[in-house]
Amino acid sequence: MTYQPPTALPRDVIDQEDVHRALVAHDFGTVFRLARERAGISYSRFATECDIKPNRVGELARGIGQITTFEKIVQIADALRVPGHVLGLADRPWETDSPGHTEETGYPHMRRRTILQAATATGLAAALPSLHQPVPPHRITLAYVEQLRARAARLRRLDIVLGGGDTHRVYLAEVQHTKSLLRDAVFTGDSRQKLTGLLAEQAQQAGWAAFDSGRAREARSLYEESRTHARDAHDDDLYGNALAFLAYQELSDDRRAAVSVAQASCATITPNTPSTVRALLYERLAWACAIDGQVASTERALDDARDALATAEEDEPQPDWSAWVDYTELEIMTGRCWTELNRPLRAVPVLTRALGRYSDDNARDKSLYLSWLAQAYLTAGEVEEAARHVSRAATLAYGVASQRPAQRLTPLITHLRPHAGIGAVRELLDRAAV
């Protein structure tokens, strides 16, 4: 018989909305408090089984501090018998031996509280050993900085298939390593300036991962830091991109201010700015204008982005951090903007066309973009199509360590609930209730 610890939570407790939400967020203090109230498990038992000091359990239950280390999260998962997928972990060894265990195959659960376990703060990267850092040379040369830049480009590919919850620590470690080189190393020629520019690039990537994993305050700090490093490196392109990231961040607080910051990012464009950088900055200006309801400004910025791609010279060198911007990405941004401006007749065709060319390997991004297609259909009154695309988006995003798909899909499901009499909606809601 499989050992069952005295702190094992009953399944019906794990499935309660507030308990499940706390588990997904790694808010173990709330879990301890609710488990004591509803399952009668004392703090002293939690302390013993989880190897936490009793007074520390009490502090966590009162909202003081949090558990962040991977090892301790695994220990708590085993002590409370919380399935690994709820906490962003692989299946625990005891799960395969437990009665009623089934593999997670077929259509994933889609209930509101489990849509995208992606929201977890600790993901795949936390379970991996630290990435190998080669011993730097005695003197930092321009050639060595280019090697580090190539490494950053390789690591950036992780963002294609993993969410910020998985990549955040990886990218942040790169930032810290580059800072240590700037602090301690000896440099030749312009290598210090170039390495400072690389640090600006790395801080933007780390900020993006922080934003994607729900660490908004940390993301803003990294973007501000990136802007400073880009200025010190005299890199106008990265400086403009730092402003664009800050504009994106500002949208949740002050839309008009976000538009101003996005306009400032576009003001950094010069005749020497690479075409993909120009397109990227104009795209983000278009997005800020769309969120602020500025129709004419949105269309003008999208036209500028399109012109930037159309006027690209053959074999024009592009920085790796903007090389992903192409006509497909521009079409997706165009569709997103028209969706936000409540123009579904414009949004649906362009999103459908672009997403038909978009690989499912980009699961997080495709899930997000499908959510805008679903929103456009919902605005147009095409409820069945909206439900179908929400289902597809949730299927793609399941298990990706990003908070953003859940933030998009949950309100869409709420808007679909009044249409439960429609078959596609009823099927979606039934799966959401599993």
Structural topology:
Blueprint: H1 11-14, H2 17-24, H3 28-39, H4 43-50, H5 54-61, H6 70-80, H7 124-127, E1 139-140, H8 142-156, H9 158-161, H10 164-184, E2 186-187, H11 191-212, H12 216-232, H13 236-250, H14 255-266, H15 275-291, H16 295-310, H17 327-340, H18 344-355, H19 363-379, H20 383-397, H21 404-416, H22 423-432
Parallel strand pairs: 1-2
Helix pairs in contact: 3-5, 4-5, 8-11, 10-11, 11-12, 11-13, 12-13, 13-14, 13-15, 14-15, 15-16, 15-17, 16-17, 17-18, 17-19, 18-19, 19-20, 19-21, 20-21, 20-22
Structure write-up:
By secondary structure, the protein is an all-alpha fold. The chain has helices at residues 11-14, 17-24, 28-39, 43-50, 54-61, 70-80, 124-127, 142-156, 158-161, 164-184, 191-212, 216-232, 236-250, 255-266, 275-291, 295-310, 327-340, 344-355, 363-379, 383-397, 404-416, 423-432, and strands at residues 139-140, 186-187. The protein is 63% helix and 1% strand. Strands 1-2 form a two-stranded parallel sheet. α16 packs antiparallel against α17 (327-340) and α18 (344-355) runs antiparallel to α19 (363-379). The protein is globular and about 70 Å long. The two termini are 28 Å apart.
